Amino acid sequence: MNKEKRLAYWRANLRLMGFCLTIWFVCSYGFGILFVDQLNMFHIGGIKLGFWFAQQGSIYIFVLLIFFYAWRMNRIDREHDVHED
């Protein structure tokens, strides 16, 4: 694999990581801390939405992002011909 292909692969990986980290930051820090008062006006199963994101929602989002990252990296690996058979 030449240097250009390695850089393209690394850029695709960094874009994906940046996307996932941004989503995680917004859900955990933004929804759980910054916007908690606005979200607490809504309820999920009798629990305030801001509290739910701070306690449970950010964990669920994080787990979903792990699966999304693995799925997307498999596609990126195939696109750049570095996948495992």
Describe this structure as you would to a colleague.
This protein has helices at 3-34, 36-39, 49-79, and strands at 43-44, 47-48. It has one domain (3-79). Helix 1 (3-34) runs antiparallel to helix 3 (49-79). A hairpin with a 2-residue loop joins strand 1 and strand 2. The protein has 85 residues and is mainly α. Strands 1-2 form a two-stranded antiparallel ribbon.
Structural class: mainly alpha
Which parts are unreliable, with pLDDT below 50 for 5 consecutive residues or more?
A: none
Number of helices: 3
How big is the Rg? 17 Å
The oligomeric state of the chains shown is single chain
How does the overall form come out from the CA principal axes?
elongated
Give a short account of the largest sheet: 2 strands, antiparallel
Q: Strand order, biggest sheet?
A: 1-2
Number of domains: 1
Overall strand count:
2
Explain the layout of strands and helices:
Layout: H1 3-34, H2 36-39, E1 43-44, E2 47-48, H3 49-79
Antiparallel strand pairs: 1-2
